[in-house]
Each structure stands twice: as C-alpha cells, then as structure tokens.
Specification:
With 282 residues, the chain is of the alpha/beta class. It has eleven helices and eight strands. Strands 1, 2, 3, 4, 5, 6, 7 and 8 form an eight-stranded mixed beta sheet that branches. Helix 1 crosses helix 2 and helix 4 packs across helix 5. The chain is globular and about 55 Å long. The two termini are 19 Å apart. The structure holds adenosine monophosphate, fe (iii) ion (2 copies) and zinc ion. The site of adenosine monophosphate has 11 residues, from helix 5 and helix 6.
C-alpha cells in the first residue's frame, strides 16, 4: 500500500516536530511519501532531506500565504508549492519578506494582548518559533502557558487570535504566487479550498481563474472539509482538469490530526512529480 501525505508542518513553521522528527514520524506512520510544507519557508528542507529514512520519499514544498484580490475585502488563502527551486531569486525575496512581516505582526499582536494585561512577551513567543516562520500558533502556546486557554484551537476563538487580537499579515497575491512557483519549476495545489470555518472561501468561478493561471491541483481530502465539500472539489477538479490531493496538514501537537489521516492517490502524486522541474523528489 502506497500512502502519500502531501501537506505537513515542522518546527520550521508552526509544527511541533523538527524536520528530522517529522520524516521519522512519517516513516513510522507507514507513509511512503511525505511532503514538508512549512508556511512561507523552505527552512526545513535540508534537515528533512538529511534525516530522511530509507523507504520514505521526501517531497520538498511550502505552504504560501496568499490573498485573492478579486473581492472586497480580499480573501486569504493557502497555496501549496511543490518541488520548486528554493534559490529562485524573486520567490526567495517574497518568502523572506513574508517571514519578516510575520515577525512584525506577531510582535504587534503580543503588544495588543499585553496592553490588555495578558502576561506574555515577544521574547517568549519568538522563543517558541525558534527561528522558524512565526505564526499565531506560537502566540497560542504563550496563551496556554499563561493559563488563559487550554488548547491552540481555543486560542483561535474570536475573542483571542481569531479576531480580537488578530492583525493581518503581508500575503502574496495568489496569481503572483502561482507564477513565481511555476517560474521556479514547481507545481501548485490550492490547500483546503473549502475550509469555510476559517473565513470566507473563494467560489468555483475564482478557482476556474486560478486554473487558467496555471494552478495544478486542489486539495480535496482535508480534515476541514465535509464529505459533501470533498465531492464538490473532486467534481470541480474533474471539470477543470486539475489533480486532486488529500493530506493531513499535520502540525504535531498544535493540532489533533495524525500523519496520513488523509492521503493522495498515486496517480495524482505521479502527475505532480512529472510536472515539476525545480528540484527532484528525494
Ligand atoms: P497564521 O499563519 O499566523 O495566520 O496562523 C494560522 C495558522 O494557525 C494555520 O496555518 C493553522 O496552522 C493554525 N490554525 C488556524 N486555525 C486553527 C485552529 N482553530 N486550531 C488550531 N490551529 C489553527
Ligand atoms: Fe499552520
Ligand atoms: Fe493551510
Ligand atoms: Zn498547512
């Protein structure tokens, strides 16, 4: 049985396993293929490659924070990029700017919380991120430590990081992101396109435009999608000629989902690998 999980996070962003622990956990979970897709960074690639156990294929990727500017206000969305050249200058510049803005934004969110008497600090949060791409789950960790919430998920309630203390970050225009990843020899898949509980989602017409711009696939099997949503995405992908993927979006203990909770069919995986020219699968 080939088990393929194309969306996981490590400590290079907001996962809780190091890249080396992640590939080991992937093999232990019986995966044959694992993609490392940290938010806005390729920082975990080398450590994951170095620690890759025999028998596990590693796909190097990233999950890019994007925005669709075709509606007002713009809609945030996540784009998975696979097997792109991590030295492509324009892409590197954008990823670097996104991570810098994540720091600025997290520091400001901490200031807002502190102004309301919440006893957390930027050094504490920065320490949890430990040099990786900082995100709200790291602030959530501080809120848990301070005893204000019990879980990461609770910290995303609207009275905390979901809305009240939420500050937007710099996101890539989604069409620019597709263009940049393709120019770097990579392949793009729209992550959890119907995950409505995170906010508004783009409609079929918008996804049709993304397909015309070079989007390669849609992530259908994801824990944030209902069975009906998965069916709708599969049908849309069929109409648009896009591949369909399924993945865990594993984050270690920042989420409850297990590695391999959702998987991608070998045929879809083969198409992704065949279309990419940036870096090889390892
Ligand atoms: P950020 O990238 O800083 O805006 O934070 C968003 C990240 O937080 C997402 O990529 C998820 O990993 C995580 N996240 C979002 N909503 C939740 C939730 N309800 N429970 C746990 N983690 C979440
Ligand atoms: Fe995340
Ligand atoms: Fe995501
Ligand atoms: Zn993710």
């Amino acid at each position: 049985m080939t088990r393929i999980d194309l969306h996981t996070h490590s400590t290079a962003s907001d996962g809780t396993l190091t890249p080396a622990e992640l590939v080991a956990a992937g093999a232990a979970a019986g995966l044959s293929v694992l993609a490392i897709t940290d938010h806005d960074t390729t920082g975990g690639w080398d450590a994951a490659a170095e620690a890759r156990p025999a028998g596990l294929t590693l796909i190097r990727g990233a999950e890019l924070s994007c925005r669709w500017h075709g509606s007002d206000p713009p809609i945030p969305l996540h784009l998975l990029g696979y097997l792109f050249d991590p030295t492509a200058p324009e892409l590197v510049a954008q990823l670097t700017a996104m991570r810098a803005d994540r720091e600025r934004r997290a520091e400001r969110m901490v200031e807002l919380l502190r102004a309301d008497g919440v006893d957390i600090s930027w050094p504490e949060v920065a320490g949890y991120a430990a040099g990786g791409s900082v995100g709200r789950p790291h602030i959530a960790q501080a809120l848990i430590r301070a005893g204000l919430v019990a879980t990461t998920s609770e910290a995303f309630a609207s009275r905390w990081l979901g809305r009240r203390y939420h500050i937007p970050k710099f996101d890539l225009d989604v069409f620019d992101a597709i263009r940049l990843v393709r120019a770097a020899g990579g392949v793009t898949v729209f992550a959890h396109p119907r995950a409505s509980r995170r906010g508004r989602v783009v409609d079929d017409a918008m996804i049709t435009e993304l397909a015309a711009a070079g989007l390669f696939g849609l992530e259908a099997d994801h824990e944030d999608h209902t069975p009906e949503e998965r069916d709708q995405i599969r049908a849309l992908a069929g109409r648009l000629g896009l591949v369909v993927t399924g993945s865990s979006d594993f984050h270690g203990t920042h989420k409850t989902v297990a590695l391999g909770a959702n998987t991608t069919a070998p045929e879809a995986y083969d198409k992704i690998v065949a279309a990419a020219t940036g870096v090889p699968a390892l």
